């Protein structure tokens, strides 16, 4: 790892050397494969490296044999491959696997790529807005009762409210501050300011969530290129080092989840910080998976930014905003306002790297009297708090 820390296994330090998004938001004239390719080309161009250096590839969510089909489409013949699929946390988990492989010498440069036309497919009638992940396996015991994906998050949020006194207004603050950050991001899908009253007065989706408590649905793709330290000198960008990672799976059936108020980030975050040799108090900002407002709140608790049950109070008073907030969170607007084309975890890594490199433009996080941030955490969540991957990144 970078900065002389010894949190990674293996002998080589690993850096993120290229990041990019494809066209995002409303993209009616592209396939998921095309968005993969667009993001991948841009990430390689960002790094200043050619396709020939890529000997590892990771992707999920597209095709029958992902990532084989996507690699073929991109003209890649990787000798290291990963198709881990654990929902939104897929990309943080893949980044951990890729970093370990590079550190151990099993690969030199690994490309992570994602693309989805989730919004356009519904608009064109190619798919419906599915309410369930299916009815096989352990899910067969929940689906007959109409327990939708959104309802699972809503049930967990209601439990937190019951046990810890968290209010619906506090949850709404997460959406308000995400929109404030999105207003600074020209790539965000929704940028008009909203208020707590706007959130509370919207149509109910699953009690206690109204529409603005829930992520938007967009099209888009992203790509991240990780490489061994010896490639850094050939890159056009400053390296952002992988300092520590952690991953954890919790449950599939809600009946097997020991505590609805504790997410798997409580484990993945602890592991990532321990392996990085740093603590949450040293993070300059955080990128957190936010399919729903409750995800942000409970992940902040479980990563150690505040105590269990204190998330509601923590998110008040603008703490999550870029420009004045104590801990800017989801600096691009997140899935609530920026973009959310499905498994959004790769977008967290792209934004974290951009911020650490000082490429946040009008939403750039500055610390200690105007300096660029040095450390950040990206934490993805999958399923209905079924899985989590956490990555600590830093400059220098």
From TrEMBL:
Keywords: Transferase. Gene3D superfamilies: 3.40.47.10. It comes from Streptomyces dysideae. It comes from the Bacteria. The keyword Transport does not apply. Residues 246-395 form the Thiolase C-terminal domain. This is Acetyl-CoA acetyltransferase. Pfam families: Thiolase_C_1. GO terms for molecular function: acyltransferase activity, transferring groups other than amino-acyl groups. InterPro entries: Thiolase (IPR002155), Thiolase-like (IPR016039), Thiolase_C_2 (IPR055140).
């Amino acid at each position: 790892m970078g900065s002389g820390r010894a949190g990674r296994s293996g002998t080589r330090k690993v850096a993120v050397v290229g990041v990019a998004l494809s066209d995002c938001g409303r993209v009616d004239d592209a396939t998921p494969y095309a968005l993969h390719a667009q993001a991948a080309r841009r990430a390689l161009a960002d790094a200043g490296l050619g396709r020939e250096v890529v000997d590892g590839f990771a992707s999920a969510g597209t095709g029958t044999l992902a990532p084989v089909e996507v690699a073929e489409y991109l003209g890649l013949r990787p000798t290291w491959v990963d198709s881990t699929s654990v929902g939104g946390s897929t990309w943080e988990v893949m980044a951990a696997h890729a970093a370990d492989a590079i550190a151990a010498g099993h690969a030199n440069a690994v490309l992570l790529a994602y693309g989805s036309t989730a919004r356009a497919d519904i608009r064109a009638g190619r798919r419906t807005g599915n309410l369930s992940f299916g009815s096989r396996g352990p899910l067969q015991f929940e689906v007959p009762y109409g327990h939708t994906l959104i309802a699972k998050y809503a049930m967990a949020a209601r439990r937190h409210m019951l046990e810890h006194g968290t209010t619906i207004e506090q949850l709404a603050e997460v959406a308000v501050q995400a929109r404030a950050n999105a207003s600074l991001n020209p790539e965000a899908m929704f940028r008009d300011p909203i208020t707590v009253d706007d959130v509370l007065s919207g149509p109910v989706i699953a009690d206690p969530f109204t529409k603005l408590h829930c992520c938007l649905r967009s099209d888009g793709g992203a790509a991240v290129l990780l490489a061994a330290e010896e490639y850094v000198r050939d890159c056009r960008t400053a390296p952002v080092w992988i300092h520590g990672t952690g991953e954890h799976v919790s449950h599939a059936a809600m009946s097997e989840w020991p505590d609805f108020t504790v997410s798997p980030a409580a484990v993945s975050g602890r592991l990532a910080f321990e392996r990085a040799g740093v603590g949450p108090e040293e993070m300059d900002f955080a990128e957190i998976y936010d399919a729903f407002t409750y995800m942000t709140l409970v992940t902040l608790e479980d990563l150690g930014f505040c105590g269990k049950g204190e998330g509601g109070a923590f998110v008040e008073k603008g703490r999550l905003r870029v420009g004045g907030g104590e801990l800017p969170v989801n600096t691009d607007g997140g899935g609530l306002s920026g973009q959310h084309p499905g498994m959004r975890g790769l977008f967290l890594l792209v934004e974290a790297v951009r911020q650490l490199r000082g490429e946040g433009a009008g939403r750039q996080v500055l610390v200690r009297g105007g300096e660029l941030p040095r450390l950040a955490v990206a934490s993805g969540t999958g399923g209905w708090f079924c899985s989590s991957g956490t990555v600590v990144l830093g400059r220098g």
